[in-house]
Structures are given as C-alpha cells and as structure tokens.
C-alpha cells in the first residue's frame, strides 16, 4: 500500500483510525521497535490495553504514572495506547511533542458524562466552591477546574485543600462518594460514572467469594459503593497491581477492567486472579473504548504519524494550570518524584 503521511491524514475520516490492510506476515512487534527508533517515539500504554500492546509498550501505568511519563519524556513522539482524555493530557503537559492515538474514537463514558456547557452551568450554581476534577475528563472540563486528581492521588489532593473550603468533585460520583467517606468531606458530586466499573454484580461477586473463600476482593474506586464496601483493598490500577504482587494472599477477585490481569499474571505468575463478573452475560469486564486500540492500529499510526492529537493553545494553557497544581501537590505528598 503506497500512501504517504499526508495521504494517510486525509484518510482519517469518520471512523477515527487508518483503515489500511496490514500484511499478516509482518512481525508487528519487530516493526514497532524499528519505528520507535526511526521516529524517536515512546509508546505509553494503560493497563487496560490488550496484552500485545502492553508487551510492546515502553511504559505501562495508571493515569498518574502515564501523565508523569508524558510530561518528562525526551522522545519526539508520544504514542498513547489509551483513550482520548489520556492522549489529550499528554498534549497538555508536553505540547511540543507529536502525540498520537491509534484510534481517535477511543473515548470514555466517564469523560463523556460531563459535557462542558452543562458542567459550566452546574459550577456557576456553587460560586464559592473550588472544582477538583478526576483526570478522566475532557480538556474543556480540565480548563474549568482548579485542581486535577487521579485515583492514586485524590485523597492527598483533597486533603491539601483547607477543610472550610467547599469543593465540587467531577465527574465520577462513585469515586467522589468514596473520597467523601475517606476524607470526611461533603463534596458536591457531578453525576457521572464509568460504564465498566458500574456494572459489576454484587450478587455474582458475593457468590464468587463464597466459592473462593481464600480469595481477597480488590477493587478500583470507580466501582459502586456496594462493591467497595465488601472489598479487602481499594486502589488505582497501579496500587491494585502492587497490592496483588506483594500481599501474602495467593488468590484475588479483581474488580476493575480485565486488561490489568495481564500484568498481575506476569508479575505474580504463581498467584490466581479471577476477574469480577459484571451484571450481564459476560464473564469479565472489558472497556470497549480502551479495546478499540489494536497492535495493527498502533503500528499504522506510528508509520503514518496519524491520528494526531491537536489542541487550541488557549485551551491547553487553561487545562495545564490545574494539571500543574496536581503535579505540585503530588510531589509535595511524596507520591511522585
Ligand atoms: P487508573 O489507572 O488511574 O487507576 O484509572 C483507571 C481508569 O479507569 C482509566 O480509564
Ligand atoms: Fe473510561 Fe471507564 Fe473505560 Fe476508563 S474504563 S476509559 S473510565 S469508560
């Protein structure tokens, strides 16, 4: 297939990715390594990506780790194997780099649950509140926020705000409710949720626990309160991984997106990890947005340098301010170097 980079950019249409046939004989792992060197590119991947993408990535992490890597990389090109808000975050933090996302349609139900115009009206009703937004939101929502947080630093971020200062927390109501409990605050919550973490079945998890009495339930704080209440440990994806590897228990029921099981199995091969069942006929819980990225799309986007994340500079600077605040507080709390 003979098309150049400009031609490839024109081909990105409604579908959001390069629909070009890839030779099935190609060793994509090898080809991607060559492209990394040729283009001075770094591949950053979230734990919810498919195993092949995790295996080819230079760095795999949670949202805080990925943001930090994106901010400090010397590579000329950041290839973000994750979803749109994550690639946008990389662009906000490191705008001189070319940031690529294998499939532009890789969105996020949680980010989509907070449209900027509606959120602005909501915010205007609470003039004396500051806004802390979970990083799983659009650049427009970040620009309307005072501080950003992730699931691994949210408690420290909230605790850095004086107790008498009222707070709006957006967009995840489950994480917000969990943090209200953890910090003893009464933050006003935006009514958003993640489609993946909201559909775990309490009934099926309870039965699974009964069938596996030695297993610990570990859960992401985006899960609903009823699931969190029976969890043995709650944390971000990196925190869940670290806990599963270091804890003396050998069996875990994992209530988050199934992609994380790949690293858990790699890092603790002798242990058993059981995906927590959702409230539908599936046995495990995949994020349809995260799973839009494939190794083929990753290879094509590196070769043709598209789809690329671009952003209005005024919006980028407005979104950067609360991101920098998050980084400062996380450093002061010793959560990042
Ligand atoms: P973390 O990896 O930061 O825990 O976030 C989970 C998530 O839902 C990402 O979309
Ligand atoms: Fe968004 Fe949930 Fe998918 Fe994460 S798992 S990208 S929060 S829909």
What tags apply to this protein structure?
4-stranded parallel β-sheet; Rossmann fold; binds 1,3-dihydroxyacetonephosphate; 337 residues; 3 domains; 16 helices; binds iron/sulfur cluster; alpha/beta
CATH topology of the largest domain: Rossmann fold
Strand content: 5-15%
Class computed from helices, strands and strand pairing? alpha/beta
Largest sheet: 4 strands, parallel
In the predicted model, the low-confidence regions spanning at least 5 consecutive residues are: none
Strand line-up in the sheet with most strands: 2-1-3-4
- Could you tell me the radius of gyration in angstroms? 20 Å
Q: Which kinds of small molecule does this entry bind, naming each only once?
A: 1,3-dihydroxyacetonephosphate, iron/sulfur cluster
- CATH superfamily of the largest domain, called what? NadA-like
Number of strands: 12
Molecular structure report:
The protein is of the alpha/beta class and about 325 residues long. The chain folds into 3 domains: about 5-105 and about 290-310, NadA-like (Rossmann fold); about 110-195 and about 315-330, NadA-like (Rossmann fold, 3-Layer(aba) Sandwich); about 200-275, NadA-like (Rossmann fold), CATH 3.40.50. Helix content is about 40%, strand content about 15%. It has 16 helices and 12 strands. The strands form 3 sheets. The chain has a 4-stranded parallel beta sheet, sandwiched between helices. A 4-stranded parallel beta sheet has the order 6-5-7-8. Helix 10 (about 175-185) links the parallel strand 7 and strand 8. The mean pLDDT is about 95.
């Amino acid at each position: 297939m003979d098309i150049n980079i400009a031609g490839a950019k024109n081909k990105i249409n409604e579908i959001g990715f390069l629909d070009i046939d890839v030779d099935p004989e190609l060793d994509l792992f090898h080809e991607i390594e060559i492209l990394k060197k040729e283009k001075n590119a770094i591949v950053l991947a979230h734990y919810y990506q498919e195993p092949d993408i995790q295996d080819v990535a230079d760095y795999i992490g949670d949202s805080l780790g990925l943001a930090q890597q994106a901010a400090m990389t010397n590579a000329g090109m950041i290839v973000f194997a994750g979803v749109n808000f994550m690639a946008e975050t990389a662009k906000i933090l490191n705008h001189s780099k070319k940031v690529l996302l294998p499939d532009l349609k890789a969105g996020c139900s949680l980010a989509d649950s907070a449209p900027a115009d509606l959120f602005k009206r909501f915010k205007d009703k609470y003039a004396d509140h500051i806004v802390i937004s979970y990083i799983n939101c659009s650049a427009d929502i970040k620009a309307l926020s005072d501080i950003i947080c992730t699931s691994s630093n949210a408690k420290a971020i909230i605790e850095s705000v004086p107790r008498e200062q009222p707070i709006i927390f957006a967009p995840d109501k489950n994480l917000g409710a969990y943090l209200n409990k953890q910090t003893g605050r009464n933050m006003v919550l935006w009514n958003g949720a993640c489609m993946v973490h909201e559909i775990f079945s309490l009934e099926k998890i309870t039965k699974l626990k009964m069938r596996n009495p030695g297993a610990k339930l570990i859960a992401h704080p985006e899960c609903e309160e009823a699931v969190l209440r029976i969890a043995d440990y709650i944390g971000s994806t990196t925190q869940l991984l670290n806990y599963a590897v270091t804890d003396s228990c050998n069996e875990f029921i994992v209530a988050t997106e199934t992609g994380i099981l790949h690293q858990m199995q790699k890092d603790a091969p002798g242990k058993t990890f059981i995906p927590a069942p959702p409230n539908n006929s599936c046995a495990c819980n995949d994020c349809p947005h995260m799973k839009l990225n494939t190794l083929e799309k990753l290879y094509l986007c590196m070769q043709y340098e598209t789809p690329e994340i671009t952003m209005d500079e005024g919006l980028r600077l407005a979104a950067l301010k609360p991101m920098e605040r998050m980084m400062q507080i996380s450093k002061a709390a010793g959560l990042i170097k």
